[in-house]
Design goal:
single chain; about 190 residues; alpha/beta; Rossmann fold; 7-stranded mixed sheet; 6 helices; globular
Length: about 190
Amino acid sequence: MKLIVGLGNPGRQYYHTWHNLGFLTIDKLLKLTSATPLKKSTKLLAEISTLNKQDTQEKIILAKPLTFMNESGKAVGAIINFYKIKPEDIIIIHDELDLPLGKIRISFNTSAAGHKGIASIIATLNTKKFCRIRIGIITDDRKQMEAADYVLNKFKPQDYKEIDKQINLAAEAAQEIIKTSIKQAMNKYN
């Protein structure tokens, strides 16, 4: 069993912000696959979906935490404890301040590098041995803002085309990891 978690902040006011690219990627995966509709689970602190068997050989859980970004570890911990998922079978999709808009990177066993949502997950799991799909968010606007303000900033109209390409790429990368391996996906997408 595998778990794909898209990080973000709950609430309509955050939907089109940089910090919610993980949520947007889960939404894209729901459209690209025959996954079940998201269901809110207060017990698991997340909206949960599963991929139907015709898409994959094993059960895949898709999740959007109901917690705010900085507490993502609570939801991930609840989900893996309930489904008995090992950390190495987790894929976390999130925004990345160290990458420019238009780039994604797949990584495994790496530090949080200042990302508070990832730091929360590492603290909860007591390991960093999980896969991440990092979606670049750096634009020219970043130079004028503090990181905390920037990640909660709404997308500019001129960025939508690039964002849509990145979300599609991140969704494809997640599917590649499931179908082949992290290493093969890294070779293809990094």
